[in-house]
Design a protein that fits this description.
The chain contains 21 helices and no strands. It is mainly α.
Length: about 475
């Protein structure tokens, strides 16, 4: 089940909201959320719900041992190690085992058969959430969750279960048993959910038609400008797809009284790659910073060790997104630019005019998304070569092959325009204004766009969220 489906919008969500609000008791509310979260997850993959529950149970028991024997005891360290190894081990088996087998086969010229295991949806996200709980408990940053069902609710809570954001336990530790939802808070959450739905259905899905067609027909031999158009389109698609999902998750959480941290902050206005990764998928980059980079020594070590730390973090960041060479290359690609900014440019980067820094940053980001998008290495290299060798483009031939592509261009332009904080500025103006007319106007626009979204969904225009694969 996905948020942008009629089943979720007109069956699942109304039922859970009604059952949630008919009783004010927080224990009752948590039971409703837990049951419906498990139903939500098992809707598509019922057998893998056991895997999630098992991993959570191991973390729960390990946490009890850590709390009982103290953080410095051998038993606590073994319990922490067991929970971490189990969580990461299961993630490795389902996500990276076949990839590792293929590498071994290639290196040693052997023929170990793949297991071809189906990747459980959301395993990368809920694994990291479990890790955040058990590690932070060991670090004495959070308190023990004595109720196993509350811990399972944290792990399985449906708004962020499938594609994030990665919600740390410390963020909602006090909200599990103590939260209130006013009508104003509910409305804010509902509007945020609608905004995310609009991003996904109206912009991401329509722009996807353009880039998917071009990347699915590379054998035609598209010219440079068409390939650049596809790269820009994918940059817009993945931003509105993922930030749209995050908006919906944050909005849904707020409708039930939970306040999640932001996951995106207009990343395409960045003036450096460092700035971009402070704005893009914030929950993931901060996770690797706090649980990998800093424990390795961060930047408080010798230069060569710091370089090693950055490379490790970004190779892991690439691998987190998928078991394929292109994701590793994508991670190394960003590591290189971050190292250049940190150790070569340093403060010199501030002397470069802002507009030039922004253009350079955007070009680097767009090329990065090409590496991210094309998993076939030969296709990737050919596309990158053609993008920079100015191969002539036959636009009329492209339109002849698929005339519907022209309809996607307005959505692409709108996506580019609203990737800068125009909507945020307008929303702030509405909030600061004493006029009710601006508020009514904003609500009417949101309602109209929501109606268009429903029409689109009724007509079966559907595209799965990109980050479901990770």
């Amino acid at each position: 089940m996905v948020f942008s489906s009629m089943t979720f919008l007109f069956l699942f969500l109304p039922i859970i909201l009604i059952l949630y609000y008919i009783n004010k008791n927080i224990k009752y509310k948590n039971i409703v959320l837990l049951l419906f979260s498990l139903i939500f997850y098992s809707w598509g993959e019922p057998k893998y719900i056991i895997l999630m529950i098992l991993t959570t149970l191991i973390a729960y028991i390990s946490a009890l041992i850590i709390d009982k024997y103290g953080r410095k005891s051998v038993k606590s360290k073994l319990a922490l190690l067991f929970s971490v190894i189990t969580s990461i081990g299961l993630l490795f088996v389902f996500k990276y085992l076949d990839f590792s087998i293929n590498i071994l086969n290639a290196i040693f010229n052997i023929n170990i058969k793949n297991f071809n295991l189906v990747l459980p949806i959301g395993i990368s996200f809920y694994t990291f959430q479990i890790l955040s709980y058990i590690i932070d408990l060991y670090r004495d940053k959070v308190k023990l969750q004595k109720n196993p069902f509350n811990l399972l609710l944290y792990v399985s809570f449906f708004p962020q279960l499938i594609a994030g954001p990665i919600v740390r336990y410390e963020t909602i530790e006090n909200q599990i048993n103590s939260r209130k939802v006013t009508l104003d808070e509910f409305i804010i959450g509902f509007k945020r959910f609608i905004l995310g739905l609009i991003k996904k259905v109206l912009i991401a899905n329509n722009v996807a038609i353009l880039c998917d067609y071009i990347y699915s027909n590379l054998n035609i031999g598209f010219g440079s400008s068409i390939l650049w158009l596809a790269a820009i389109a994918y940059s817009i698609q993945i931003y509105y797809d993922f930030s749209g999902y995050s908006d919906m998750a944050i909005g849904l959480g707020r409708m039930f009284g939970f306040h999640f941290l932001e996951n995106f902050n207009y990343p395409y206005i960045s003036n450096s790659i460092t700035d971009f990764w402070r704005r893009w998928h914030i929950s993931l980059s901060s996770f690797f910073r706090d649980y990998v980079y800093i424990p390795l020594g961060g930047n408080r070590v010798k230069k060569i060790i710091n370089i090693r730390n950055i490379l490790i973090v970004w190779i892991l960041t690439g691998l987190w997104h998928g078991a394929n060479v292109n994701y590793i290359l994508w991670g190394i690609y960003y590591a290189i630019f971050l190292l250049i900014e940190k150790f070569i440019l340093g403060n010199k980067i501030k002397k470069i005019p802002n507009i030039l820094r922004h253009i350079i940053t955007i070009i680097i980001i767009i090329i990065g998304w090409v590496i991210f998008r094309l998993e076939d290495f030969s296709s990737l290299t050919q596309v990158l070569i053609n993008m920079f060798t100015f191969v002539p483009s036959n636009w009329l031939e492209l339109l002849r092959l698929n005339s519907k592509l022209v309809v996607t261009i307005p959505y692409l332009i709108i996506g580019i325009i609203f990737s800068i904080p125009i909507d945020k500025l307008f929303h702030n103006k509405v909030n600061n204004s004493k006029s009710c007319y601006l508020t009514i106007f904003e609500d009417l626009i949101l309602g109209l766009l929501f109606a268009i979204v429903i029409i689109k969904l009724v007509s079966n225009q559907y595209n799965p969220f990109i980050y479901f694969r990770f």
